[in-house]
Amino acid sequence: MRKAGAMTVQRKTIYDLLTAADDHPTASDIIERLKAGGHSFAYATVYNTLKYLTDEGLIQELKLEGDACRYDARTEEHQHIVCTACGKVDEVFVPTPPEWLAKISDETGYHITNEQYVFKGVCRACSSANKH
After folding, report:
1. In this structure, are 60 and 6 located in the same domain?
2. Residue 115: how many CB atoms within 10 A of its CB?
3. Phi-psi region of 35 (alpha: psi -120 to 50; beta: other; left: phi over 0)
């Protein structure tokens, strides 16, 4: 670990909350869940902890267009899809075709070290609701 410190009780509590989450909560969602669980952390503690966990590679920060950052404890390579009707965020585990990465690298001159795509569509629940 870096000089930034050890895994404090607050950091572990927030990390555990994220690993147990079946969604991609925002910082506000995390604060509400902490309160519901009987924890009283300062807003700065939560935001600093999210930055620490992101910097350490323990979680991912998702910056979605027009939305607050969301957090994901799944750090293995995957992408996300957002429902344009309800805002639900799901994970996508289809690997990126290597030829895409090669073409992007050739076109831009970048050495790609990480990839993050956000797909958009309408989820099954919203599609079903609109069919009736």
Report:
1. yes
2. 12
3. alpha
One digit per residue, the tens of pLDDT, for the chain of length 132 reads 444 678 899 999 999 999 999 999 999 999 999 999 999 999 999 999 999 999 999 999 998 877 789 999 998 888 999 999 998 999 999 988 999 999 999 999 999 988 888 899 999 999 998 864
Dihedral in degrees, nearest 10, Cα atoms 21, 24, 30, 36: -50
**Alpha-carbon span 128 to 132, nearest angstrom:** 7
92 and 60 housed in the same domain: no
Residue 14 is part of which domain span?
Answer: 1-75
Look at residue 15 and give its three-state secondary structure: helix
Per residue in 43-60, is it b (16+ CB within 10 Å) or e — as a string?
A: eebbeebbebbbeeeebb
CATH number at residue 120: 3.30.1490.190
Amino acid identity, position 49: T
Number of Cβ atoms within 10 Å of the Cβ of 118: 14
